[in-house]
C-alpha cells in the first residue's frame, strides 16, 4: 500500500472517529437538557399539587398567577398566601415527590413573618445513610408573605445517573478513539522500523556479495593451478571452497529475499526425497566445518518426504549450525526420526545453552537474538531460525522448540506422511 493512500485512510479514520465522538457528546448534552427540562416539569407539577393541598379546608382561592417559580437550576419557590404548618408541608412534599417519581434528596425552608427571614426546615434524604449537610441560608424574596422554598442539592448527579447509557456510550467512544490513536502510532512506528530494516537488508546484500565474488574468483583461479590439480588433497579442498562459496551465495540470496517481507512466498520445487542421505550429507559438511562436532543419527528404516530438497537441506544445516554456535562445551547433536500416526517427526536435540522460558516463544521471530553473553560473541542477524520457520510453514509442516530437561534445546519438525 502506497504511503499517500495509507496516510489518507489514517486521516479519514481519525476524522470519522472524532466526528462520531462529537455527535455522541452533542446527543448526550441534548439528552441531559431534555432530562433537566423533564425534571423541572415534574417538580413544578408536584409543588403545584402541594400548594393546592395547603389551600384545602380554607375559604381562600388559589392565586390566579402561577404560584410556583423556578429561581435557578435547583431552587424553586412556591407562593401560598396562606398560613401553613411545617409538618403538613413536609407530609405533602413527600407524598407528591413520591407520586411524581422524584427520587432525589431535597431540603426546604419557609418564610417567617415575625422574624422576616427564611427559616430552614429540614434535609430530606432518599438514603438514610446519607449524612445531612450543614444548613444553607435560603434567600428571601420580596412581595411574598406565606411561601416556602425547595432546593435539590444533588440534581445534577441525579440527572447524570438517569443518563448512564448515554455516558457509557460516550466513554466507550473515547476509549475507542484512544485505542485508534495508539494503533496508528504503533503502525507508524512499525512502518519506520520496516523501512530501516529494508535499508539494512539492501546494504547487507551488497556487503555479502562483494567478498563472496572475490572468494569465488580467487578459488576458480586457484583450482586451475598445476600445483593444485596435481595434489588430490589440495584440489579437494579447493573444490570444497568453491562449492561452499556458491552454496553460501545461494543461501544469501534466498534468506535475504525472504527477510524482505513476512508475506513473501518462495517458489518450492517439491519432489520425493530421501531423508537419511540428506541428513548424512549435511552432517559430513558440518563436521568439516566444525571438527569437534559430534552428531548422532537415530533412525529405523529409510523415509521419504515430499519437499524442496534445497530448502530442506538448508533447514537441517541451519538447525545444526545454530546448535554449534550456542554451545559452551563440545557440541553434541542428536537427530532422531520417529513415526507418529500419520506424521514423520524429526527431533534435533543439542547440549547448548538453551533459551530462557520467557523468550522461547520468540525463537523463530525475524531478527530475534536472545540477549546473553553468547549472542554478543557470535556474529549474526537472527535470520537462520526465521528462515527455518518460514520454509516449514510453506511446506505446511509444524515446528516446535523447547528446552531439554537437563541441558540444551530441542527443535521438532512434524512432517505429514505422503
Automatic annotation (TrEMBL):
InterPro entries: BphY/WalK/GraS-like, HATPase_C_sf, HATPase_dom, His_kinase_dom, HisK_dim/P_dom, HisK_dim/P_sf, Sig_transdc_His_kin-like_C. GO terms for cellular component: plasma membrane. GO terms for biological process: cellular response to phosphate starvation. It holds the Pfam family HATPase_c. Its EC number is 2.7.13.3. The keyword Repeat does not apply. The chain crosses the membrane at residues 9-27, 165-188. It catalyses: ATP + protein L-histidine = ADP + protein N-phospho-L-histidine. GO terms for molecular function: phosphoprotein phosphatase activity; phosphorelay sensor kinase activity. SMART domains: HATPase_c (SM00387), HisKA (SM00388). Keywords: Kinase, Membrane, Phosphoprotein, Transferase, Transmembrane, Transmembrane helix, Two-component regulatory system. PANTHER family: PHOSPHATE REGULON SENSOR PROTEIN PHOR (PTHR45453). This is histidine kinase. It comes from Flavobacterium amnicola. The lineage of its organism: Bacteria, Pseudomonadati, Bacteroidota, Flavobacteriia, Flavobacteriales.
